[in-house]
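User: quick one, fold this
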Amino acid sequence: MAETVAHLRALAREHSARFERSIPLIASENLLSPYAKEMLISDLHSRYAEGLPGERYYEGNEQVDEIETVCLDLARRLFRCSFADVRPISGTVANLAVLKALTEPGDLVGTSRLADGAHISSAAFGAFGLRGVKPVYYAWDAERMTIDVAKTREILRAVRPKTCLFGLSLFLFPLPVEELRPTLEEIGARGWYDGAHVLGLIAGGEFQDPLREGCTVLSASTHKTLPGPQHGILLGEGDEELLQRLRSGAFPGVTSNHHLHAMAALAVSLAEHLEFGREYARRTIANARALAQALHARGFDVLGEHLGFTRSHTIAVRADAEGGGAEAARRLADAGLVANKNLLPGDTSPKRPGGIRLGTPEVTRLGMGEKEMEQIAELAHDLLHRGRPAAEIRERAAELKRPFTTLRYCFAAGEAAYRYYDLVGRDPS
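Assistant:
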């Protein structure tokens, strides 16, 4: 078995080395700061703390209670809300907690279609199906890559869902929550926002503000544009009865122990975002728009041209001319440009997605700017349009990446050079 462990460690080091040489463009990924990562390998990883601070089912949680209290205070401050719960262990688990709190099996819930950018948790084979709720699909404006307000008003008035979910996995532009708020109030539906992708942009004041625009609850994962651990969060406003349902939805509804090491890492990440989040969000969006423009100038079919391509961290490219989404994503990754295939409006099969999705949270975190976005677009153009060999592009990508291995927008970056990849796969001393 010692050989197996050695092999596993070698694979982890190989994975880290691959990403040190690659340009990471997955919109749903980010890098954790050293102080946050320290929490993940602390003794907190080995402990249990079911319940809330001061109301635990386990002993030995005095420090955990204080950490979680700080985490909750930071979350409420960052998102300017009265309620936070940091016990969901992922974004989908947070969504399940909301479904447990706000719906009953058989209820109708408004949402977007997968091909229009929705997350799989709102599908029949995801969290919606697990809870037994039935989706009511919004009308979609493919030209503007957002919900068609007028047609959706008609749908909501006709069907009258109990809850309306706003949130996407392909999230280019703010959703018309405020415009649909009067209709939700008219039919008695509660607004719910899944901000997993854009949480850091919301916190940085650079996207929309769903809790002020008409949503009662915001659920999210915490590791995308908010560069924290892989964890979940609930945020909101409402009466005590609603808030208690949300707390119960989180525990005992869908969690037992809530991964104390990740919760502590989230507290660090929230504190760092209060310090650096506004500038990080601004630069992340600026990089996305610059990369989109550079790709468009090189003949890529980037969606949303007439709207500036994106107002978030995400870019969508229709890849018909490049062999389809799956083929384009595979070739890019093989050449050191790591993106993912993605459904686009009009697609009918998740096995044959028409596009690729690219994002800028990680490259921004590493200090890249608009000049580097031009270079990334040129690499993609040389590979997919000019037929340059993958090995050549891979080497050029590694050379571009070489100066960008130090994390920004975190406290450690101001104290000493911190190469993110140094602490991955290191032999224990």
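User: anything notable?
Assistant: The chain has two domains: 35-270, 277-423.
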